[in-house]
Amino acid sequence: MYSLILVFTVIIISGLIAFVGDWVGLKIGKKRVTIFGLRPHSTAIFITIISGILIAIITVTILAISSNDVRTALFGMEELKEKLSNLSREVELRNMQLSSTKEDLKEKTTQLQEMEEKYQELSEDIKNKTGQLEELLMIRESLIEEKEKLAEEVEELNATIKALYSGIAWIREGEVIFGSDEQIALTIIQGQRPIEEIKKELIRFLNEASNKVLVMGAKKDERTNQVFIIAQNEFEDIVQKIYDSDKEMIVRLLSSINVVEGEPIAAHFKTLENKLVFKIDEEIISWEIESFKVPGEVEKELLTLLRKVNILAVGRGIIPDPKSSFVGSISAVNLYNTVKTIVESGTIMKVTVISIYDTWSTGPLRVRMEANPISSSNPLTSD
Asked: Which residue range(s) make up the domain with 200?
């Protein structure tokens, strides 16, 4: 509606200007007025031309004032073309980026599909492996149960074999050299040494023990020409156990059954860590003893105390002598002086047993006794 009014206004104004220009030209022609020295006819033409120019100027002015698009078309066309060109280039660049993005998207979509396929495959594989694992766990549990049953059966069979051999040993003629599980020999080997060195040390130990038992009456096996009958896997296990330890290891050679003179020895190993059990001057045990008139009664009390020390030391890990089952000894002079001190004191004495040296698991334990009155802290006995 606005455009129609504008066009209608321009037409009316143009008509009025043309009418005025024609009217002015007619009047000038009748009066024969000249402008710029022109003839009247030329002056009329000039007026007509001016009227046309005014019509054009006024028309353009009105349109320019009334419409931003007209102003842009008249005065901003080059700028508009430049902007249009820039926009065209930008559109072209955006289209290229869009095309590249579409290609990337297509590639990523393909990769995503491949990953989804792999995920599905892995999920199926995990599912299958989980099922297999559950089956294996069930099999493992059943095998463990079977192993435990077999271990119990083996223990029963070993006990039966030992009992049978023990019975046979009593029936057979000859002197029993070693009882079942009796210690034959003992050595100490440092752990984490090279495997070959450990094997050589064990073989040397067995050779020394062989010489010992041959003197005692044992004989070599005719088939193997060896005194000791030891399973190869047990030998290898002991070597590995010593190698895995970072401590000094005590290796004990024990008879598996009663050994009769003139026969080879079925033997096995036992190992334990060689540790410090009692330190030098360490108090092992204390006991209160009343003074008796008879020294023999006091001596019995002290021997009972020493038996307690023996039991305590074995419990702490000291290996007892295989023949006597004792772990150590005490000076006879120290024992006599302690008995004398208690008898002469006429009061209750506190007797303390003290280790003389640092004592390890291999022993022996050397001790001394100190007797003190309950009211005094100074020892009344000496070695």
From this structure: 176-274
